[in-house]
UniProtKB/TrEMBL annotation:
One of its GO terms (molecular function) is methyltransferase activity. The keyword Nucleotide-binding does not apply. This is O-methyltransferase. GO terms for biological process: methylation. The keyword DNA-binding does not apply. Keywords: Methyltransferase, S-adenosyl-L-methionine, Transferase. It is an enzyme of class 2 (transferase). Pfam families: Methyltransf_24.
Amino acid sequence: MSWQRRLPFLRWSFWRMAMGVRNIPRTGQVGDGREDAAADYVVAHARAGDPEDVLATIDRFAYTKSFLINIGEEKGALLDAAVRRADPALALELGTYVGYGALRIACAAPRARVYSVELSADNAAAARRIWAHAGVADRVTCVVGTLGDGGHTLDALAALPEFGPGALDLLFIDHAKDAYLPDLQSILERGWLHPGAIVVADNVKIPGAPEYRAYMTEQQGRRWRTVEHPTHAEYQNVLRDLVLESEFLG
């Protein structure tokens, strides 16, 4: 896989993804069926009931079949470390895609109940297939919707018995970049985060979430304590990215 890391631009699936990127904010998918193909590949090639092998199989698909826009293994290791520090009983992900991030959280936090919010019902179906094959479907749940839909999805989460004041230990943000800050603010307004809760944000440099980064910089030492992790964008080692890990101070 070494050349795929160094030279992603030689891969047709990378350019097909780049051409289809305009579809993602509207549909949640690139538009060529790669998300369903990833789920098919996992079911065909990964060991059932082995979440670590499922993650490795998704990575292999992203390198050798079709480029994927989940966090990937390099940045995923940063997420894993943050999850272990948070030791969550309840975790929330914004942006399910094919279920990779939520599966990493479930692996790093075996006692956690994980909820993931996803725009696309088709992506949700692919993720559920992958979680079922990995054997974690009993504690990982996808909620189809967006936090910016006028409160419907927030109300659906609030109706769940796990959610309540200070109940959320970990938030992973990896969806529409312009929604990072308003969605975080919506969660703060609900009071779900407690002092010491951890928020991880992917793709802060590429494609970029400048308003979110500026907010965390301005709030450093006040409401948040943030560490910026320099890394690479998913499934290559050419383009630089940032993952922000922020501890809520209250």
